Amino acid sequence: MNGGDAYGIMEAQYTRRHHRHEVRDDQCTSALVKHVKAPVHLVWSLVRRFDQPQRYKPFVSRCIMTGDLGIGSVREVNVKSGLPATTSTERLELLDDDEHILGMKIVGGDHRLRNYSSIITVHPEVIEGRPGTMVIESFVVDVPEGNTKDETCYFVEALIRCNLKSLADVSERMAVLDQTEPINPY
């Protein structure tokens, strides 16, 4: 088995374990994976801050929180121009610091993402002999009238890919400053 096969097996196991969504016929779902060359504690420190998505999400210009960062907390996110929305109201559904899992649901806003919920998990791995992180983000969302499942999934996946790339860029810059030691495989 080569390294790529091992990644695929781990991705599948984590996805089956943590990324279960109940999907109706009028919804689409998907899961995306990003391998980040930064240790899990750095990546999780960004992901878990439900009150500061703009630290790595490039389309977020501002975030105002209601609540104490616990389950049920709500954030009002302002979206940068260029997207078909200006605001999104999102509720924290799950935050597990031991398993590194964050779940959220969109509960309002001026966009077409109805019944959107997502789960993001971060998992330690070794990349090129150094501590790395496998990030998996999955979602389920209604397919808007006038759109197909493929169109809806393509749009949401493009946003998530952009967010995950930005998360990797920010985390990897932080890791360079942290000077994380390589893992000795022996």
Give a nutshell description of this structure.
This protein is 29% helix and 35% strand. With 186 residues, it is α+β, with helices and mostly antiparallel strands.
How would you sum up this structure, described in words?
The chain is α+β, with helices and mostly antiparallel strands. The protein has 3 helices and 7 strands; from the N terminus they run αβαββββββα. Strands 1-7-6-5-4-3-2 form a 7-stranded antiparallel beta sheet, with helices on both faces. A hairpin with a 2-residue loop joins β6 and β7. The model has no long low-confidence stretch (mean pLDDT 88).
Write the layout of secondary structure elements.
Elements: H1 3-18, E1 27-36, H2 40-47, E2 60-66, E3 74-79, E4 87-96, E5 101-109, E6 117-127, E7 130-142, H3 149-178
Antiparallel strand pairs: 1-7, 2-3, 3-4, 4-5, 5-6, 6-7
Helix pairs in contact: 2-3
Main beta-sheet strand count, sense and barrel state:
7 strands, antiparallel
Our measurement of the CA-to-CA distance between the termini, rounded to an integer number of angstroms, reads 19 Å
- CA-atom Rg in angstroms: 17 Å
The H/E string reads HEHEEEEEEH
Instruction: Tell me the total number of β-strands.
Output: 7
Counting helices, strands and paired strands, the structural category is: alpha+beta
Query: How much of the residues is beta strand, in percent?
Result: 35-45%
Mean pLDDT: 88
| Spatial strand arrangement across the major sheet | 1-7-6-5-4-3-2
Low-confidence segments, given as residue ranges, are none
